[in-house]
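Operator note (shift B, R.M.): manual run for Palmitoyltransferase requested after the automated queue skipped it. Running by hand, logging everything below so the morning shift can see what happened. Input copied straight from the record, untouched. If output looks odd, do not overwrite the archive copy; leave it for review.
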Amino acid sequence: MSVMVARKKVVRKWEKLPGRNTFCCDGRIMMARQKGIFYLTLFLILGTCALFFAFECRYLAVQLSPAIPVFAAVLFLFAMATLLRTSFSDPGVIPRALPDEAAFIEMEIEATNGTVPQGQRPPPRIKNFQINNQIVKLKYCYTCKIFRPPRASHCSICDNCVERFDHHCPWVGNCVGKRNYRYFYLFILSLSLLTIYIFTFNIVYVALKSLKIGFLNTLKETPGTYPSSSLTVLTVLEVLICFFTLWSVVGLTGFHTFLVALNQTTNEDIKGSWTGKNRVQNPYSHGNIVKNCCEVLCGPLPPSVLDRRGILQQEESTAQEESCPRGPGAQEPTTAQGPGGQAEESSAQQKDGSLPHLSAVPVPSLSNAEMPEEKQLTFGELPVPSQDTGQAEH
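Run finished. Output pasted below as returned.
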């Protein structure tokens, strides 16, 4: 006999989330799908710092101070921690509307705009919102089926609406938004300091070597064995990497320092939201650099609204074949013979747990005297069996 067994399969919410993000460690890590440049960032930071700690730090610790490698290690660990925190976290993705919510919003928009004649373009889907006596427009996202909150935008790479969207950074492999912007800023700031630090002490290392054997001999080949010659080549390579990195990283840090002081995002600066023809003032700025920096870098961090590791339970029905041989001790289900010669089950509940049809449940017979007054039957109301055939009339 075959038995249908229903078992519950545990599915996490991150497995069903729309968009183009990737998740690791059971939804704890959230990144964009395009992670190639992020691996290049890790390689440049780890490679340059490894060469610096392996060669120059040992020489500088002996010649100058042992605090040089200690401070470099602190900068390196802080830069790596903020990089991973920026790359592996939710930037502030806004969940898409459920089908019922989307249908309600569509109905609300149609009721507001009215019927649009055929051939005419429908009006833009915009809601006005007031912030600090300034009118801010909330735009409708046709992908997420929601009116985006203020300062939110839809990332075309991750295919998600991100709250306080700044930009999508391929170097960190993630969007930069409300929940990870402060870590992104601390990352580029610490990386700038680390790059300047390594570049400076590489120059110091070359200068100390030049005082002993001359600058030209230091660049060409250090007298001695092969390892000392390769050390000089690696030092020159570090200097070149740090020199070209300085222009981009330090410049990027300066630009975002300017944005933090104004409480403005990269997306707003590119679009000219507060510096356009209308000359609308930034409603999010406090007019004070210190207050703006405190809000952006030290304000409360909102929790993620995705609930990536929440549980969605799905039932799966599987058919299992079970052979039940009847032994000598096996008992047949007991049945009772009714007055009409039909078999009646001894229990009102069937084997599969469902209740039987009402016609199969035996009803105890009550005499006319035992019935309530309003339920007593007269002789004319009793059914009369047919005498022509042995079957009951309908």
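Quick read of the result: Residues 226-262 form the longest helix (37 residues). Helices lie at 36-63, 67-87, 99-113, 181-213, 215-220, 226-262, 266-271, 289-298.
Leaving this for review. - R.M.
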